[in-house]
Amino acid sequence: MRRTAVTRTITKLAVATAAAGALAATTGAAHATARTPDTATASHAARQAAAAVCTVNDNGVNFRGGPGENFPVLGKVNAGQKLNLRGQQGNWVMGDLWGGRTGVWIHVAYLNC
Questions:
Q1: pLDDT at residue number 12
Q2: pLDDT of residue 49
Q3: Alpha helix (H) residue ranges in the chain
Q4: Given the DSSP bridges, would you call strands 104-107 and 73-77 parallel, antiparallel or unpaired?
């Protein structure tokens, strides 16, 4: 299911990029420098954008000060909470909670990325 959402995102990005390139070409705006990115570049950008946000998949999930159970619990989040992905170490993801703390760590089992 996650692959389908990523594929849709990639397709939408490719269509939007092509439309922007066509508009620039027909209006003559920056026609000397305008260039439509190739499909591989658009696909890579879409994959990065899709992977940049994770969603918590359970209620009462601890977020910690570091990548492991030996780090202090800083708080709890519930299913649906979004996290901007900033990095990963082993099975722990580090990121910024939407509307909340930054630089927190959550185990990958509790995230859909």
A1: 52
A2: 54
A3: 2-27, 39-51
A4: unpaired
Which residues does residue 89 pair with via DSSP β-bridges, in sequence order? Answer: 92
CA distances from 84 to 10, 25, 60, 65, 106 (A): 19, 35, 19, 16, 12
Q: How many CB atoms neighbour CB 57 within 10 A?
A: 13
pTM: 0.57
Residue 103, both tokens: 């630089």
User: What's the CA gap between 82 and 71, in Å, rounded?
Assistant: 21
For residues 72 and 63, what is the distance between their CA atoms, to the nearest angstrom?
A: 9
The 10 Å Cβ neighbour count of residue 31 is 10
- The stretches in the chain having pLDDT less than 50 are 1-7, 9-11, 13-36
State residue 92's pLDDT score: 98
- Separation in Å, CA 113 to CA 8, 16, 26, 84: 15, 23, 38, 10
Q: Which residues pair with 88 in a beta bridge?
A: 93
pLDDT at 23: 36
